[in-house]
Design brief:
eight-stranded mixed beta sheet, 6 helices, binds NADP nicotinamide-adenine-dinucleotide phosphate
Length: about 200
């Protein structure tokens, strides 16, 4: 398995990188600042680049089995970055012949989320919700073989625990650890169980 990981220096992405290497995958991380990648492993290739740069993505994407996006704009303010990331990534994937895409998103987008989540999605996280919705639209219209993984609050624990996954439905708990999220995402890369599906995932 050869993975192309975006956002590997972030909270979710770093757990994904650790577990992918533990599973014996070949992993390419495409990062703005290579010095932030502490892992050293013969299966790891670190490429410096910006996720908005289609030409650079086109150079490095061919030959990978799947792309995982753990990108985030890193702001609570209004941002079109998530949409533009996915526009660049999906165009480059199509050009490069890489079809499988797994993307992290947010539980705020479930209409049946609990009251607290709905309120948070309308107030403090309203811009994240809007940006993630725009991102999901790009992914769903891309023609790629995608899975969108909507998660609640991410906790710092790197250990891989049990998870609950619900296709098209809000997950049962309000958080998930980084390690458990990574376990689900990499299991889905192997099993391809939720193709062209939005899933809710939590502890
Ligand atoms: N954290 C949570 O509690 C939570 C909850 C629900 C959903 N999510 C979702 O999970 C996803 C990941 O979240 P996170 O908290 O792990 O994010 P994060 O820690 O803020 O990491 C974001 C990643 O995106 C990278 N990035 C930003 N702009 C880039 C660019 N132009 N080119 C290349 N890389 C770029 C960052 O790289 P740099 O290191 O260079 O900045 C970093 O690796 C997001 O979609 C988020 O909405 C997170």
């Amino acid at each position: 398995m050869k993975l192309f990981l975006l956002g590997a220096t972030g909270k979710a992405g770093s757990a994904l990188l650790d577990q992918a290497l533990q599973r014996g995958y070949l992993v390419t991380v495409f990062v703005r600042t290579p010095a932030k990648i502490i892992a050293r492993h013969p299966n790891l290739t670190v490429v410096q680049g910006d996720a908005l740069d289609i030409e650079a993505l086109n150079v490095h994407l061919p030959g990978h089995d799947a792309v995982i996006s753990a990108l985030s704009p890193g702001t609570l303010k209004h941002s079109t970055l998530l949409r533009r990331f996915m526009e660049a990534v999906t165009v480059a994937m199509t050009d490069s012949g890489v079809k499988r895409l797994l993307v992290l998103s947010v539980t705020f987008l479930f209409h049946n989320a609990g009251l607290l989540t709905l309120v948070a999605g309308k107030t403090i996280f309203r811009n994240i919700k809007r940006g993630s919705q725009e991102m999901e639209e790009v992914v769903q219209n891309s023609g790629l073989v995608w899975t969108i993984i909507r998660l609640p609050r991410l906790t710092a624990d790197g250990r891989a625990g049990e998870y609950h996954v619900r296709p098209g439905h809000v997950p049962p708990a309000r958080s998930i650890s980084r390690g458990t999220l990574a376990r689900f995402v990499l299991t889905e890369v192997e099993r391809n169980q939720f193709l062209r599906t939005v899933v809710g995932i939590s502890a």
